Amino acid sequence: MQLFFYFGVQDRLKALLEDRRISELLRLPDITVAPHDREDKTVRSLYDSQAWYDLVVRGCGRMPLRPSDFGTENGRRNIVLGVNLDGFQPFKTSHSLTPLTCMILNLPENLRHRDSFLLLAGLIPGPKQPANQNAYLDVFVDELCRLYEHGFEIRDPTEGGRVVTVRVKLLFVAGDYPAHQKNNCQQGASAHHGCIKCYIQVSLNN
Q1: How far apart are CA 82 and CA 103, in angstroms?
Q2: Cα–Cα distance measured from residue 198 to residue 11, given in angstroms and rounded to the nearest whole number
Q3: What pTM was estimated for this model as a whole?
Q4: CA 198/CA 206 separation, integer angstroms
């Protein structure tokens, strides 16, 4: 197995949440009206989407949703993450690096993509991408499960250092088709079962 450097996300999130300058920016938006009930149904950001309302504001898990107060508990301090795990070749070489990066979706769109707010949770240094990434994701999935079920404590800088518990939820995993093929054990290009949603075999004669 290749080397895998895992840095985790809890310590970095705790440092951001306890920073008075940005702690207010990390509060989840106060959303109470479903997208289909609003007069303006235009989706301008992730917060306007049905997925955000269903999985963060109203419920949790896959359909059928289970009721949840994740979006409002702990003074709306809970964290929602998006994850990307995809290799690239730096400096136009054949060497491959595979970073595991997390984006904090609580932040406004003009901030969440900045390098200073992206969390580097892990790194597979190469020289090639692993054929199967599940073994490397185990430690990350274990941490996410713990942070969702039990959370972690911080000292809220806006409330005189009062200790509060913060939970973390993973909303989506981003990547191109080769990345989804590895992360989700899906079929890749030119496969007999080429569809990523079903198991209908492709006829190569048609």
Answers
A1: 5
A2: 39
A3: 0.86
A4: 19
